[in-house]
Amino acid sequence: QVQLVESGGGLVQPGGSLTLSCAASGSIASFNVMGWHRQAPGKQRELVANMFSTGVRNYADFVKGRFSISRDNAKNTIYLQMNSLTPEDSAVYYCNYRPFVRPVDYWGQGTQVTVST
Fold this sequence. Notes:
Radius of gyration: 14 Å
Low-confidence stretches: none
Strand content: over 45%
Distance between the termini: 40 Å
Structural class: mainly beta
Helix content: under 10%
Oligomer: single chain
Largest sheet: 7 strands, mixed
Number of helices: 0
């Protein structure tokens, strides 16, 4: 029903910036939440940030002040602007979509972010 495709990952130096994008296609519910989760090797997948269709944003404490999430509903695309990146931010970043009428999670394939010297 819904396909999510991430892009924008890559290698960046500590202190650098990177912007991820996620394009959604299919049947998108009007009331939903989309967000970004990340998973590093040997660790659990964790919420980075999400944004409700109402415009409300949520951020994990460890990215507040550094990351910014935004949505372009006309293009069914969500973005994550990442600044002041550290090696601890290295992970596979996954796009997530959850409609409220049917609370089932949809996931993208993931995009690798590596922060290294």
